[in-house]
Amino acid sequence: MLRGDNSRLASRKGARASAQPVVNPSERHERAFLVGVEFRVRRRGTGKANSATIPSAAIAARDHATSAGVSPAPDSPDFSSEESLDELRTLASSAGAQIAGEFMQRRDRPDPATLIGKGKLEEIAGAAASVTADVILFDHDLSPSQQRNIERVVDTRVIDRTQLILDIFARHARSREGQLQVELAQLEYLLPRLAGRGIEMSQLGGGIGTRGPGETQLETDRRKIYRRIRHVKQQLEDVRRIRAQQRQRRQSAPVATVALVGYTNAGKSTLFNALTQADVLASPRMFATLDPTIRGVMLPSKRRALLSDTVGFIRHLPHTLVSAFRATLEEVQRASLILQVSDASSLISAEQDAQVESVLKELDADKRPRLHVMNKIDLLEPKQRESLRDDPQTIHVSAARGIGLTTLLDRVDALLEEDRPSRVHLRIPQKEGKALAALQAGARIYSRTYQDGLVELDAEAPDSLLRRLREWVVE
Length: 475
Description:
The protein is built from 15 helices and 16 strands. It is of the alpha/beta class.
């Protein structure tokens, strides 16, 4: 794990650091100092703090769910402060940062002005300066005023969790649609943070025909952003309309859509490639998949289904991103079956599943038929793998090793209602080569006999195929 190169940092209260790895001089990575925050829970009716604590990001996620109209599950497990900081470390690495040091602050409650208090900020400022950090990353969402107040104290660029996730999305967006979605989320994040972002924002600007008399640069920039937001939303609406037309054409044929959802880096793209023989990028970096991909998959009953790979979810996924990617995530809302992919080797798999459930509720997709796929069982100890048992709601697989994929396809086949197969007896003339070829390609054939120029078959075929062959079906 990347850490700072100043050994004195380790002796500071709440701070950690270690030797700096050798970095290629031609590659300039920003040095990031991570700050985690944990708030203690207080018992109702007492002034005493409980021994239990809640990571600040968990509180932010709860507030986020409430603001989005989603009631968080009261019994859903929370990430510990160490797990939360570990995830921030992974996010920072995915953004191309070099971890220079870390700091964990525990408080009874957030400070309205600076989140963690001015005294601790001064301590963080010294620790970050000692390792020559370029940026300080907070594992918490910061209000515009908190971000400005913190930057004044630490005299270093400050980024909160949402801005970090937006940056990763911007790095990984490849398609025009993905870039538009990320840009919209970034603009909506930037809008309330314009004030105070530099002295030039408060200066009066000139410009014939572009600004009103006395209009400030801040008002001009805000107006430009509003105009750009409207333009991007219009373009995304065009994308949404095209997607709806494509979906309507797909729905005119009896082909079911199966959507892969799950926490980021759960192995969705690897599973997608294994089932469809596609070559979608599968990377251990967070949010490697932003652009949706749909491919056909042949089920054991010879039915075809469409498999959709989607963007990974994460704890406290910024609401602006959920809104911006709504056109993409409509594939999840309208899927015939959702495959919820989890990392079976992760120690925080239950917490990650709870966060996925929260996002599905926000998308109004939590009531769709669902099958839980526990992936990466090849990373478990042999005794753990031997104790795993599938049940009607859960399948255990390893997409990387191809373990359990046949069982998974059988279960998907049984759960899909579109174009259900039926067992029939057919008597087809041997000269009907096209009909026999279609049956061979699209049905399970259990027996076949030849007599008097006819082929008698006992087969199981989808309804769409049987409608084409109904003249030869023997009642």
